[in-house]
Design a protein that fits this description.
Elements lengths: L3 H6 L3 H18 L1 H13 L4 H22 L11 E4 L1 H10 L3 E4 L6 H12 L5 E5 L5 H11 L4 E5 L2 H12 L3 E4 L10 E6 L2 E6 L1 H9 L2 E9 L6 E7 L12 H22 L22
Parallel strand pairs: 1-9, 2-5, 2-8, 3-4, 3-5
Antiparallel strand pairs: 6-7, 8-9
Length: about 290
């Protein structure tokens, strides 16, 4: 681990966000491909110039808040204020006892969303979160150790991780996923996202349909001036379609499209906090462990 990271973890959030906003612009100005992709993706969604420019700094804030979130001691709560809106939807789902799938796009601080759930509801029902491991060995090791916290487990985006999520849901646990993350080949379908066809995961609707689990959206809004986070939970704006009368492929395509529409509605609440530079429309990679 780089010795700078523990030092950054002890800085106030407002200072980290200020540095992050600056670094976000450094990355934006220094990478023509990133700049083109961010502008193109934002244009597809009809995002205005002011919100698009704000998203550049917000992407840097996301990066700089990670040491503070990852490196605090296990068992210590999030160091910054977290307030909830819609926590009753989570509680209703937990009380129903059929499992819960939480979906958050690359919006706001998705690291906070999972940790905040674990702190508030994890004793009642732990959460397992699907993530894509970093390519760098040191960062991958840091992710695996820092993200695994009390009542919060992580599952890599490969066949082993999918099996881990299936076991967790059978045990009545909560699952967390980023449905706008491009899944490996074979774990998605092509579906519209802001008017452009994007490879979209089908794991969430499959697991929900098989288990009867509730599906909710969640995102952690980053508050100004380092004021902490507002975790917002709501039902899907476009519920999953009925299974009756549709083939398996037809239902999965309809379900993926419904989830994408719900993510679009969520992103529209705070478009400046979405990662427009994410390579959303790329072709999927091969599925690890498929042999």
């Amino acid at each position: 681990m780089h010795p700078l990271l523990p030092w950054l973890a002890r800085r106030p959030l407002r200072h980290l966000h200020a540095v992050g906003a600056f670094l976000g612009w450094v990355a934006y100005l220094g990478s023509p491909s990133y700049r083109r992709r961010l502008k193109a993706n934002a244009a597809l969604a009809g995002v205005g110039a002011q919100e698009r420019r704000a998203s550049v700094g917000e992407a840097g804030k996301l990066l700089m808040e990670l040491p503070r979130l990852w490196l605090r001691p296990a068992g210590v709560t999030i160091n910054d204020p977290v307030r909830w809106a819609g926590a009753e939807f989570v509680q209703q789902a937990l009380d129903a006892g059929h499992g819960l799938v939480l979906l958050t796009p690359h919006l706001g601080s998705f690291e906070v969303a999972a940790q905040a759930y674990a702190e508030r509801f994890g004793e009642q029902q732990p959460i397992s979160v699907l993530y894509r491991p970093a390519r760098q060995a040191w960062l991958r090791e840091l992710e695996e150790t820092a993200r695994a916290r009390p009542n919060l487990a992580t599952a890599p985006a490969n066949l082993a991780g999918v099996r881990q999520l299936m076991r967790a849901l059978r045990q009545g646990q909560t699952l967390g996923m980023l449905p706008d993350q491009v899944p490996p080949q074979g774990l998605g379908v092509w579906a519209p996202f802001f008017g452009e066809t994007a490879y979209t995961m089908t794991l969430a609707p499959k697991l929900a349909q098989q288990s009867g689990a509730a599906v909710l959206t969640i995102f952690a809004e980053r508050l100004p001036q380092g004021g902490g986070y507002a975790v917002r939970v709501a039902p899907l704006t476009d519920p999953l379609p009925p299974r009756e009368g549709l083939t398996e492929d037809g239902w999965l395509s309809a379900a993926a499209a419904a989830i994408n529409r719900s993510m679009e509605a969520l992103i529209a609440q705070r478009p400046e906090q979405y990662l427009w530079g994410y390579h959303r429309y790329k072709h999927p990679r091969s599925l690890e462990g498929a042999s």
